[in-house]
Design goal:
Blueprint (H helix, E strand, L loop, with lengths): L1 H5 L18 H6 L20 E7 L12 E7 L5 E6 L5 H16 L5 E4 L8 H10 L2 E4 L2 H4 L5
Parallel strand pairs: 1-4, 4-5
Antiparallel strand pairs: 1-2, 2-3
């Protein structure tokens, strides 16, 4: 910017003096780095598909390209691999989750042991309960916010 002002390269540009190596307040915030998280005291003893974390987000104010307002997120605890499915309504959750779990188990040739959710009503129904019992999955409902350890 300083060169543009000095060389009068842009018409109508106000004559301002810019300080070298000075960042505006917003740029400083954008360049801030967070402190890294402390490592876990003990390594993860689980294996792929031992624990799946599931959550449903929504309704979103803005619809997706496919006119969907809900997002189903499934995370494998061991690998942190994440599956994301877009839903039109909350009542699709059971069907989509069952199909996703079946597909994951088929692809990985391994059984899901524990499904952990935030205890939302979309995860507490007879359809999912029967599916989990049939598959031999354990349901572990917890509040995600309280399950994180404070690092500060």
């Amino acid at each position: 910017m300083d060169r543009l002002v000095k060389n009068d390269s842009v018409r109508g540009l106000p004559v301002l003096r810019f300080q070298k190596n000075h960042l505006c307040q917003d740029c400083e915030k954008g360049k801030m780095n967070k402190a890294s998280h402390k490592p876990k005291p003990e390594p993860c003893k689980s294996d792929i598909l031992d624990i799946l974390h599931v959550d449903l987000c929504g309704p979103m104010k803005t619809k997706s390209i496919g006119k969907k307002r809900y997002i189903l997120v499934v995370v494998d605890d061991y690998s942190r691999y994440t599956w994301v499915k877009f839903l039109k309504s909350k009542d699709e959750t059971s069907e989509v989750l069952i199909n996703l779990v079946k597909t994951i188990q088929t692809n990985k040739q391994k059984q899901v042991k524990i499904v952990r959710s935030d205890n939302g009503t979309e995860f507490k129904n007879n359809t999912l309960q029967a599916f989990y019992e049939d598959q031999g999955c354990q349901i572990n409902a917890c509040l995600f916010r309280s399950s994180f350890v404070s690092l500060g």
